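Ticket #4471: structure export looks truncated?
Reporter: QA, pipeline team
Priority: medium

Steps to reproduce: submit the single chain below to the structure queue and open the exported record.
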Amino acid sequence: MAVIFDLSSLRGKITSAYITLVISISVLGIIAVTDMLFLERQVTQGEIVSDLKDAVLEMRREEKNLFLYSDEDTLSRADGFAASSLEILHTNEATLRDIMIEADPLTMAASLGRYRDKLEQWRATPGNDRGTLQDELRTLGHTLYLSVESLSRQERRLLEAAVRESQWFLLISLLIIGLSIYIIGRQMNRVAVMPLKQLESSLMPIAEGRFDHLDTPSGDREFIAFTNAFNRMLKELEIRQKRMLQSEKLASLGILASGVAHELNNPLSNISTSCQLLMEEINEADPEQIHTWLKQIDSETERGKNIVRSLLDYGSQRNIHKQQHKLLDIINDTKVIINKMLRQHSTRLSINVPADLTIVVDKQRFQQLFINLIQNAIDASGTGIEVRISAMLCQRSGSLIPDGAEVAGNLKCIKDKEKKYVEILIKDNGPGIPAENLSKVFNPFYTTSEPGHGAGLGLYIVQEIVNEHGGCLAISSEAGKGTQIIVLLPGEEL
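Actual output as written to the record:
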């Protein structure tokens, strides 16, 4: 029982508030029942007074008929009503005594007794001698009527006062109950709802992946126990996450080593083979053959340099400097950089971007994005392809993302339908990517190009760049019909 009423716990506070409310309502209920019983008593008194008044009125009506007709039946009826009035007085003496102010039941009973005596005298007195009796009967009847009328008015006043008191009690009871509910509700909001809201706010960073220490929102034992247990869980999760990251780092290192070994093995083997042939045949081979071997060595060396460059981009940690730029300017500057590559591979680049469309990005990193995407298209398709770049500002994100597309990056940008986004579409007319390989294209060292063309890091690096800018990336392709890349970037200002 002591635990239930322990005000240092949420359970104790809620239980105490509930019991307080129950006691208040119970007390008001008892008072209400008492008031109803009082009203019932007043109504009963009213019925008694009404019966007495009706009997006296009937008695006086028969009295008037007696004066007119002087018959025995009228006399008997008048005496009967007088007797009924007398019986009501004797039966309800105590009740009537509480109402009467100007008289008392005994005095009225005595008057009714004299009235009945006068009726008996009327029966025994000859008609010519009844004048005095008639005046006495009329006076006694009038006095009785006035007494009954006064009693009726007093009873009505008492009943009206009881009804008013009951109405005021009902109003005050409703106000007390409403005020109690309001006070208890505010108390519950303070001790339960507000701490829960604070707890919800404290959990938001955790939902975003930040294992911050959870502060206790209340001094109640339940909240303290919950936050302590939750903080222990967070600590354990942090330890497990570090272990998992370490395992992932080791796994990534293994993948990186395997990829590097695989990618560098081919050019190194070709260089080694060419050098051996050159050393063996240098005295006998003609200059043209020697030139071919040297050219092959140079080509494979350049290939190795490209692989190393991609690896450096893959592993580099760069500071992002976002500024507002016109997207068309970024693309045109990128075109100047890769113009030689476009000519070598007979690649046509068409641009359909509004001149006033701006994005908030790191210009150098975004140029790298376009270079990688165009380079990927050339590596996968060879020469003679067309790459089309278009962009638009839209509100419904995902409008350009077809069904079945592979999506990577910050997925909020395809769920939030209210914000504005810049949609960039890079599309080529190359051979496309088979559906079974589409889910692998964002993995590091995965490539659909022929051996010797690409390190398999282009799309992975593009994905990282898009992530850095809070956007998302989607790719859709169909074998024989080309590939399209959709980049979605938030359209808000800095």
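Status: closed, not a bug. The export was complete when the record was re-opened. Leaving a note from the reviewer for reference: The first helix runs from residue 10 to 69.
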